[in-house]
Amino acid sequence: MKDTCSAKYNQEASEQAYLLIQKQIQYYKSPNQSLKNASLARLDIIDSLEDPELRCQFNQQLNDIAEETRYQLLILDEEITREEITTYKLLYQDRMDQFRRTCSMSSKNSQSFLLIMNLIQQRCSKIAERIQCIYSYKTRCIGTKAYI
Q1: Does any domain span residue 146?
Q2: 52-76 pLDDT per residue, tens
Q3: What's the structural domain count of the chain?
Q4: DSSP letters along 18-55, please?
Q5: Secondary structure (3-state) at 60
Q6: Which of 22, 35, 50, 86 is most exposed, with minimal Cβ within 10 Å?
Q7: Are 21 and 74 in contact (CB under 8 A)?
Q8: Is residue 37 part of a domain?
């Protein structure tokens, strides 16, 4: 039963993480989240350039690279999380099937089997609710000073 609940926890956490990543991508794609206005770490070598136009050009390139990298990392994170969802969903289903087989073979009383399965389902539902609550909070924090 512990393995089943653990698999459900991982499944739900990866599903909620995927939703959070999608929100992050939307947030960072908005025009007001461009790194053009952000003060990235100043590089002494760029600051040492005497030509202000060249200095501005290098700073722009640095910002463009940082934005593209941020976006690519979020996309990569999204892909990895999507794979985790599939893996944990299959693991959870496998654990539940395994538990059903074990209980149905050892239980002479179908009433007790149904009760045990109902309790596991309730436990897994509570796990899902708690994780959804945590990720709901994280999603609401996107764009606030607490998030940044």
Answers
A1: no
A2: 888 778 878 888 888 889 889 999 9
A3: 1
A4: HHHHHHHHHHHHSGGG-TTSS-PPPPHHHHT-S-HHHH
A5: helix
A6: 50
A7: yes
A8: yes
Per-residue model confidence as pLDDT tens digits over 16-35: 999 999 998 888 887 777 66
Q: Exposed/middle/buried for 15, CB within 10 Å: 0-12, 13-18, 19+?
A: buried
pTM > 0.85: yes or no: no
- Domain presence at residue 148: no
- Residue whose structure tokens are 């459900």: 8
**How far apart, in Å, are the Cα atoms of 107 and each of 28, 80, 111, 113, 122?**
54, 40, 9, 6, 20
- Whether residue 147 is contained in a domain is answered as no
Long-range contacts of 7-11, Cβ-Cβ distance < 8 Å, separation of 24 or more: 7/88, 7/91, 7/92, 7/94, 7/95, 8/92, 8/124, 8/127, 8/128, 9/127, 9/131, 10/84, 10/88, 10/91, 10/92, 11/85, 11/88, 11/89, 11/91, 11/92
> Would you say 146 and 28 are in contact if contact means Cβ atoms under 8 Å apart?
no
Question: DSSP state, 72?
Answer: H
Looking up tokens 């693991």 gives: 91
